């Protein structure tokens, strides 16, 4: 069933129409639309709504969130790409933004050349989880066991091309191991499968996994960030065993290519100012992701690096949609 | 005793003045939203989610849960009165509920729906309270082959849904399965069968399909008359169910409650199937099984109780494991995370007040719904005395706005119109839409579990026989097939004898 | 078309066969079927599509041989069959540029004119009333965020 978005996307055309006249005076003169490629209620949606609310206060103008779920976020990204580059349509994107174009040739945008990055907002690592019955307690043991049994074990993910999937493909390619990918629909179903031992191991988002780790149902072997996570300081980073391995799931704002730099700068400053407040810290602590603000340039570099890195992983693993 | 002290804690939380208030707001909003076609609990919860940021965690969850089961209540109201199902579960209620309404018995149908739902809610609450932890373990024993075999059983049993030709019912199920495959393939990310339309990337919208096939198609059929009837139904006789009505719904309600409770626990979307399953069972075992499909009160009580029980026990995997069994539950988990609560195994231990408060509030909410809805029955039934042209226009307007507000696309309007036409054609050709709906819901799950089973077994199909639960379902499926075919074979032989 | 009759089983069978053939053909031609180990996106639609094709043909043959269920096309509400989808499409088209109020009015006019014996005056009055109620519930009651007036009118 299609998940519905109530704050509809009708207004998109509004932004298109109204924008032409709005170049002259101070930005923003009209409603600003934030296109989000997820359904209402998810973490990404909530984060974007919170920031929209804050930007509205900062600029004294309404910022509305248009939910545009569909095609894993590609529908939303394509919409932002096609919008007029005047600052009245911006997108809130997450890691899949730089993964989808490599995965699916029909996805018609380039994350680097078609967009002007505004700011990264937050980031979170994935964690490699194993069911206790698998009988390994450390990453080294896991690597040994997987390498000794190529193609014997299954691993799960929240869906094809999700960061959970690519985390594992990257690791398997680095250690030259083989394992069969079983995609599930979303993190919740993936965790269910892991706990009930349908699949012995998988990467999943750190925050959703923590309660199951604390209950002893799953064993964390390693986190995907370059450094250890503050949430689970006893768990090593994959990079400690496999040098150079790094993957973090992030989210942030982008605008269509050609958006005036002064508008991008104004938005960046407003977002960063909000992220520095105690209120924001409290909220992100609840959601469980780390505030990770950046300048437009640095965010662009992250997007570009990921695009290149994941493109390579995907083509090497031979993952592709038709 | 643990159970009693837990319940006492629950009542303590749920009966706090503010929580009672939020519970009431939730069920009221849910009922109203449920009555509007096209606006479901999912949309409502999504709108109200930001409001809950500033609320106490327990109050927030109590209100959101109230919307969820309130909307299911409201949904059955329009299903019975206007043949407008807003959700998978109420698609089944239309079958007998709408027939009853046409026979002038909308009142008893609505009351039966309310009473059986309340009964089911009460029992399911006790089940959740007593067995939440052990039952979640049972759910975990279900592996992909088991799910697949369970759905095969469901598909075979669904043939019973046919009121007319069995062959056509099977064809409708198959067509439903196929329509369910439109969209994005989860195993390859491939967009398939969408005729190149990005709007179909997430598949055919269930609400548009159901409202078109059932509700608007029914209006088209009613417009066939030589001169339009001014009023939809025969004279309304009696608002409340008679004593014999009540006696007739006892057994179906109990059966429906048990079926719903069992299916609701399964994280693989069992709750969605509960009303179908209960109806199918009733059609086979009820004393009045011949009347079912033609406006029998059992055909309302069974699916309504199953649906309510299922949506209640669906909280078990959500609360104890942090696993959503449907999109609404996924949103609820989102709401909990925003409150700083990580749903999962620790929640009962770490936040017993929240856990038990929510469970007890569900029962209180159900009580409120009965108290709210029984007096409203009279009001709802009056809608049927509205001149038919007014009803036609209102249904079209509400359906269009409801669906458009959720999708925001011109496409969804075309989709609704297309399904209305298709529904009318099917009706003319003697094909029932209910089996198609079931196929549409089962299709994606069936394929997902089939392919997952085959991936895990490395392509070995015997896995469906070696897994004990799966084998059990397959045996049951074969038995069901025999039971369904037996009368047909017997009849054929009789016919042969007659010809002799 | 006073005496036009349609063999229901044959028509239904052919309709099913057509659907089955379309799904199977699309799956075979455009989608990977895969292996039993790694089933492709086309496997399930192809298999079920073929099955539906078979069932459709069986139903059609049965209808051709028995010919007992006929459907009269006498009472088909052609006006509603055209006006309902048209009204919905107009609604969808009018939403962005003209807004909820006008879009609803158009839809209601279409829907009401589909009812036999409707006069223009009653149709307009009815449409205005339903539009008012609908706007009241959805825009003021639920605040679903659909603009009352569209882009062109602001």
Quick summary:
Helices cover 75% and strands 1% of the residues of chain B. Chain B has 500 residues and is mainly α. Chain C has helices spanning 8-30, 43-66, 78-98, 100-113, 120-142; strands spanning 5-7, 70-72.
Mean pLDDT of chain B: 82
The major pleated sheet of chain C works out as:
2 strands, antiparallel
SS class of chain C: mainly alpha
Biggest interface, chains and residues, is: B-C, 72 and 78 residues
Summarize the structure in words.
The complex is a heterotrimer of chains A (322), B (500) and C (154). Chain A is α/β, with parallel strands linked by helices. Chain A has two domains: 11-123 and 249-317, Bordetella uptake gene, domain 1 (D-Maltodextrin-Binding Protein, domain 2, 3-Layer(aba) Sandwich); 125-240, Periplasmic binding protein-like II (D-Maltodextrin-Binding Protein, domain 2). Chain A contains eleven helices and ten strands. Chain A has helices spanning 11-19, 43-59, 74-82, 100-103, 139-148, 163-175, 186-195, 206-214, 261-275, 278-287, 296-317; strands spanning 32-36, 63-67, 89-94, 115-130, 154-157, 180-183, 201-205, 219-223, 248-256, 290-291. In chain A, strands 1, 2, 3, 4, 5, 6, 7, 8, 9 and 10 form a ten-stranded mixed sheet that branches. The longest helix of chain A has 22 residues, at 296-317. The two termini of chain A are 23 Å apart. Mean pLDDT of chain A is 82; it is low at 1-24. Chain B has 500 residues and is an all-alpha fold. Chain B has one domain. A two-stranded antiparallel sheet of chain B has the order 1-2. In chain B, helix 6 (106-140) runs parallel beside helix 13 (315-321). The longest helix of chain B is centred in the first third of the chain and has 35 residues, at 106-140. Chain B starts with a helix and ends with a helix. The longest helix of chain C is centred in the middle third of the chain and has 24 residues, at 43-66. With 154 residues, chain C is mainly alpha-helical. Chain C is flat, with a radius of gyration of 23 Å. Chain C folds into two domains: 5-72; 78-153, no CATH class. In chain C, helix 3 packs antiparallel against helix 4 (100-113) and helix 4 packs across helix 5. The mean pLDDT of chain C is 87. Chains in contact: A-B, A-C, B-C. Chains B and C meet through helix 8, helix 9, helix 17, helix 18 and helix 19 of B and helix 1, helix 2, helix 3, helix 4 and helix 5 of C.
């Amino acid at each position: 069933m299609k998940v519905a978005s109530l704050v509809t996307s009708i207004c998109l055309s509004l932004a298109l129409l109204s924008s032409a006249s709005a170049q002259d005076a101070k930005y923003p003169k009209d409603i600003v639309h934030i296109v989000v490629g997820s359904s209402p209620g998810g973490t990404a949606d909530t984060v974007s709504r919170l920031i929209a609310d804050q930007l509205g206060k900062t600029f004294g103008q309404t910022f509305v969130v248009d939910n545009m779920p569909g095609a894993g976020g590609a529908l939303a990204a394509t919409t932002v790409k096609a919008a007029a580059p005047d600052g009245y349509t911006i997108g809130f994107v997450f890691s899949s933004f730089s993964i989808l174009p490599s995965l699916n040739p029909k996805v018609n945008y380039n994350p680097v050349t078609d967009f002007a990055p505004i700011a990264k907002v937050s980031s979170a690592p994935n964690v490699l989880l194993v069911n206790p019955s698998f009988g390994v307690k450390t990453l080294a043991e896991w690597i040994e066991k997987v390498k000794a049994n190529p193609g014997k074990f299954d691993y799960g993910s929240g869906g094809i091309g999700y960061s959970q999937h690519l985390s594992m493909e990257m690791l398997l390619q680095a250690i030259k191991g083989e394992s069969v990918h079983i995609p599930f629909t979303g993190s919740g179903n993936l965790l269910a499968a892991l706990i009930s031992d349908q699949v012995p191991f998988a990467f999943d988002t750190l925050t959703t996994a923590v309660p199951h780790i604390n209950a002893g149902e799953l064993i964390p072997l390693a986190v995907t960030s370059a450094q250890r996570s503050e949430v689970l300081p006893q768990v090593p980073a994959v990079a400690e065993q496999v040098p150079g391995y790094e993957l973090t799931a992030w989210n942030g704002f982008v605008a269509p290519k050609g958006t005036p730099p002064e508008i991008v700068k104004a938005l960046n400053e407003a977002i960063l100012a909000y992220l520095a407040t105690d209120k924001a810290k409290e909220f992100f602590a609840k959601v469980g992701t780390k505030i990770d603000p950046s300048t437009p340039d640095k965010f662009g570099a992250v997007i570009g690096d990921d695009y290149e890195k994941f493109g390579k992983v995907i083509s090497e693993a031979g993952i592709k949609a038709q | 005793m643990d159970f009693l002290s837990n319940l006492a804690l629950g009542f303590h939380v749920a009966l706090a003045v503010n929580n009672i208030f939020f519970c009431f707001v939730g069920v009221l909003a849910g009922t109203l939203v449920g009555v509007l076609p096209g606006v479901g609990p999912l949309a409502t919860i999504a709108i109200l989610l930001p409001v809950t940021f500033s609320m106490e965690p327990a109050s927030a969850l109590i209100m959101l849960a109230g919307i969820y089961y309130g909307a299911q209540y409201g949904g059955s109201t329009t299903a019975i009165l206007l043949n407008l199902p807003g959700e998978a579960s109420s698609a089944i209620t239309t079958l007998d509920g709408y027939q009853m309404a046409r026979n002038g018995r909308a009142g008893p149908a609505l009351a039966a729906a309310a009473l059986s739902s309340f009964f089911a809610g009460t029992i399911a609450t006790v089940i959740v309270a007593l067995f939440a932890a052990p039952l979640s373990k049972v759910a975990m024993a279900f592996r992909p082959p088991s799910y697949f075999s369970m759905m095969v059983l469901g598909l075979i049993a669904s043939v019973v849904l046919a009121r007319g030709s069995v062959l056509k019912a099977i064809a409708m199920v198959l067509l439903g399965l196929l329509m369910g495959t439109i969209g994005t393939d989860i195993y390859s990310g491939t967009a398939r069968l969408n005729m190149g339309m990005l709007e179909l990337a997430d598949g055919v919208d269930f609400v548009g399909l159901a409202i078109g096939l059932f509700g608007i198609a029914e209006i088209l059929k009613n417009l066939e008359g030589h001169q339009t009837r001014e009023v939809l139904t025969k004279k309304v006789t009696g608002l409340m169910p008679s004593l014999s009505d009540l006696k007739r719904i006892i057994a179906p309600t109990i059966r429906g409650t048990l079926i719903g409770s069992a299916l609701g626990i399964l994280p693989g979307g069992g709750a969605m199937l509960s009303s179908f399953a209960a109806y199918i069972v009733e059609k086979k075992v009820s004393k009045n099984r011949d009347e079912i499909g033609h406006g029998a009160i059992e055909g309302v009580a069974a699916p309504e109780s199953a649906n309510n029980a299922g949506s209640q026990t669906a909280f078990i995997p959500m609360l104890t494991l942090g696993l959503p069994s449907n999109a609404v539950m996924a949103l609820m988990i989102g709401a909990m995370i925003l409150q700083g609560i990580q749903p999962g195994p620790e929640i009962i231990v770490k936040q017993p007040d929240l856990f038990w408060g929510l469970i007890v509030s569900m029962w209180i909410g159900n009580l409120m719904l009965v108290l709210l809805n029984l007096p409203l029955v009279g009001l709802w039934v009056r809608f049927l005395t509205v001149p038919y042209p007014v009803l036609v226009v209102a249904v079209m307007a509400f359906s269009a706005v409801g669906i458009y507000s959720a999708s925001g696309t011109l496409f969804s309007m075309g989709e609704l119109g297309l399904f209305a036409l298709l529904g009318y054609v099917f009706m003319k050709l003697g094909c029932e839409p209910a089996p198609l709906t079931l196929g549409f819901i089962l299709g994606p799950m069936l394929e997902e579990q089939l392919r997952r089973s085959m991936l895990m077994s490395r392509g070995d199909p015997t896995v469906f026989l070696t897994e004990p639960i799966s084998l059990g379902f397959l045996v049951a499926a074969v038995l069901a097939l025999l039971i369904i075919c037996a009368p047909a074979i017997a009849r054929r032989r009789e016919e042969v004898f007659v010809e002799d | 078309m006073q005496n036009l009759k349609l063999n229901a089983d044959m028509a239904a069978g052919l309709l099913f066969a057509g659907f089955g053939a379309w799904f199977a053909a699309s799956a075979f031609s455009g989608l990977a079927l895969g292996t039993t180990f790694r089933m492709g996106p086309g496997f399930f639609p192809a298999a079920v599509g073929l099955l539906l094709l078979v069932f459709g043909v069986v139903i059609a043959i049965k209808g051709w041989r028995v010919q007992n269920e006929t459907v009269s096309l006498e009472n088909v509400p052609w006006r509603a069959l055209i006006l309902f989808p048209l009204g919905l499409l107009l609604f969808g088209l009018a939403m962005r540029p003209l807004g909820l109020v006008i879009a609803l009015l158009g839809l209601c006019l279409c829907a009401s004119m589909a009812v036999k014996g409707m006069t223009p005056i009653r149709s307009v009055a009815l449409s205005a009333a339903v539009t008012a109620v609908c706007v009241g519930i959805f825009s003021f009651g639920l605040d679903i965020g659909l603009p009352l007036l569209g882009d062109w009118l602001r």
